[in-house]
Amino acid sequence: MSVLERLSSGTMYLICGAIIAFVAAVCVVFLIRAWRMGKAIGMDTKKMKQAVTASATFSVLPSIGILLGVIALSGSLGVPWPWLRLSVIGALHYETQVAAAAAEQVGLSELSGSLMTPKAFTTIALLMSLCIMWGMILSTLFNSKYLNRLRGKSANTPAENRKKGGFGDVAMSAMFVGMVSAYIGSYIGDFVSGHGRFTFAGSWTPLAVAAVSAAAMGLFTWLAEKKNMRWLDSFSIAGSMLIGMLAAVLIGK
């Protein structure tokens, strides 16, 4: 049995499925408690039903991006592990980036099922888990105090200044821009390469796909902000991913 077959074995499905079932059960418990609390404080039942229906509807398309991530990683890490990661706590851009970086460090030329070894998978899975667990730990330790500070600042801050956001918003935006710039820089480096001179010898497909995806995201943002189509905010990331993947398929033909 190959490593990839073992990673998609019944035992892996059982372990990962049990964890996902537990998290799903917790979600159901909170849903029931929230519904009961809403009725207890006198909220309109019709409006609560509309909120549940709208939330379920707007969750469908963004979840397609998660499914695409599971499919993309399943060829190298099996199905259960990506399913667990992206169902519970992971994010597509994080999981793929960390998995690829870990694979490179253990000597794999690429993140591929044919090259996967037990040692490589163990290292990849451990790194993916360790790097993302700090959000939960820090939230558990400091969120209460941080929320109290936010409430105090919100009460003492003029309304026109609250919209500007704080350091957290700026830091997240800067981190995201830096991550995108690193990817774009690597694409440009692969495309423009040579010994002492520039030669356009690499593949231009990643750059073209990045441009198409950025254009799609820009269109979604413009429609949401300028045409008051706010419902597109929930679909913009998944929609841009799908358009980018379609562009990759068409360009790669």
Provide a descriptive summary of the structure in words.
It is a single chain. This protein has ten helices and two strands, in the order ααααααααββαα. With 253 residues, the chain is mostly helical. Strand 1 and strand 2 form a beta hairpin. Helix 2 runs parallel beside helix 4, helix 3 packs antiparallel against helix 4 and helix 3 runs parallel beside helix 10. The longest helix has 39 residues. The two termini are 34 Å apart.
Strand content: under 5%
- Global outline: globular
**Estimated radius of gyration:** 22 Å
User: How far apart are the first and last residues' alpha carbons, in Å?
Assistant: 34 Å
Helix content: over 70%
Number of helices: 10
Quick check: average pLDDT? 81
Structural class: mainly alpha
Widest β-sheet, arrangement of strands: 1-2
Q: Give the SSE order as H and E letters.
A: HHHHHHHHEEHH
Uncertain ranges: 195-201
Instruction: Describe the main β-sheet briefly.
Output: 2 strands, antiparallel
The overall strand count is 2
